[in-house]
């Protein structure tokens, strides 16, 4: 399903450390290695504060890793500057959780949607009307919304506008950071259907951050599970319920409520609070919350090992004996 020739973007050994009070260091991302494939969705899940946004921000050059590189079609984009950096924005776009924060409230929807196209001189001012209409239709909004202001729309409609703006430049990658979590469940579903439809039509690769494993497993081709800045498991989205190996992924799955779930089985959820990224213990980051913790887990950080067929896991339970 995942062919190496279809790799669009690859993160290699990406680490981000932030200086913290008292001369301490906060490690938000630790040695992250991930690949994004053409026309596929990579879902990134994990608890609040585990480093999901920190990682995705590198892809759109909103931040620079302390160590490691991100290759877009084989070219390192982590340290681009000036015009090269500006040009690169055309290929990788981001949709945020709260689109209103990124919209100028005084601009009409037409101008908001067409702004990136105008900035890159892809269209003339006289073409705005027709372009805005076409893009609004793509996200299932009526063309006359072009005359509205952002505050005259619902949250779901604003999120569609944000998507229209993100696809305007026909990017190869769209990064969505909790882009649907503020919306109610039915609106969330229609937005995801819309994104999946656009992905199929245009072959866009998507990086999608969510807290909600139930949501992401419904459409992500690949899911990466993050814990305290570390990727602990990567696997094909459709296999997460049946093949998850890492105790943290299993605990996350135990916390997913499903109407068809077997209530006779004990629900394995996570008991204690996550340790701080400031006080990372040596060894496995999940050791204090793991029911399977062994002596080696306290001493040695498990490497992300290839289990075949797009499945990788970082856990000493699966060390070769
Ligand atoms: N600019 C910064 N300076 C210092 N610490 C930061 C900075 N940005 C993020 N952090 C810290 O890095 C860690 C990871 O944050 P991040 O925003 O990536 O988490 P997240 O997984 O996106 O969480 P959420 O699900 O709540 O959005 C957190 O402990 C956060 O406090
Ligand atoms: Mg975040």
How would you portray this structure in words?
- The chain has 321 residues and is an alpha/beta fold.
- It has two domains: 4-91 and 171-318, P-loop containing nucleotide triphosphate hydrolases (Rossmann fold, 3-Layer(aba) Sandwich), CATH 3.40.50.300; 102-161, no CATH class.
- Helices cover 29% and strands 24% of the residues.
- The chain contains eleven helices and twelve strands.
- It has helices at 52-59, 82-88, 99-102, 109-119, 128-138, 155-168, 185-202, 213-216, 240-243, 247-254, 295-299; strands spanning 7-20, 24-37, 41-45, 67-72, 75-76, 92-95, 173-177, 205-210, 222-227, 230-236, 305-308, 311-313.
- The strands form two sheets. An eight-stranded mixed β-sheet has the order 6-7-8-3-9-10-12-11, with helices on both faces.
- Helix 4 (109-119) runs parallel beside helix 6 and helix 6 (155-168) packs parallel to helix 7.
- The chain is globular.
- The chain starts with 6 loop residues before the first strand and ends in an 8-residue tail after the last strand.
- The model has no long low-confidence stretch (mean pLDDT 89).
- The structure holds adenosine-5'-triphosphate and magnesium ion.
- Adenosine-5'-triphosphate (ATP) binds at residues 18, 26, 28, 46, 48-54, 211, 277.
């Amino acid at each position: 399903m995942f062919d190496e020739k279809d790799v669009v973007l690859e993160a290699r050994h990406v680490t981000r450390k932030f200086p913290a009070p008292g001369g301490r260091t906060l490690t938000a991302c630790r040695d992250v290695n991930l690949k994004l494939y053409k026309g596929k969705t990579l879902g990134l899940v994990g608890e609040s504060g585990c480093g999901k946004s920190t990682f995705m921000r590198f892809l759109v050059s909103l931040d620079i890793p302390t160590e490691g590189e991100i290759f877009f079609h084989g070219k390192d984009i982590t340290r681009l500057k000036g015009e090269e950096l500006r040009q690169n924005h055309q290929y990788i776009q981001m949709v945020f959780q709260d689109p209103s924060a990124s919209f100028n409230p005084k601009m009409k929807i037409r101008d908001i949607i067409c702004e990136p196209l105008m900035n890159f001189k892809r269209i003339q001012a006289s073409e705005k009307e027709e372009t805005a209409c076409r893009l609004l239709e793509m996200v299932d909004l009526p063309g006359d919304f072009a005359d509205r202001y952002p505050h005259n729309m619902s949250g779901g409609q604003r999120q569609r506008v944000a998507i229209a703006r993100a696809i305007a430049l026909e990017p190869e990658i769209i990064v969505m950071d909790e882009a649907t979590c503020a919306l109610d469940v039915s609106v969330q579903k229609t937005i995801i259907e819309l994104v999946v439809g656009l992905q199929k039509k245009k072959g866009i690769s998507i990086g999608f951050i969510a807290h909600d494993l139930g949501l992401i497993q419904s459409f992500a081709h690949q899911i990466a599970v993050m814990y305290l800045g570390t990727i602990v498991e990567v696997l094909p989205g459709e296999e997460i319920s049946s093949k998850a190996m890492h105790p943290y992924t299993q605990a996350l799955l135990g916390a997913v409520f499903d109407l068809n779930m077997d209530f006779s089985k004990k629900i394995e959820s996570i008991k204690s609070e996550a340790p701080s990224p400031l006080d990372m213990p040596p060894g496995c980051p999940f050791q204090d919350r793991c029911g399977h913790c062994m002596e080696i887990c306290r001493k040695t950080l498990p490497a992300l090992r290839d289990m075949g067929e797009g499945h990788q896991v970082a856990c000493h339970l699966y060390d070769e004996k």
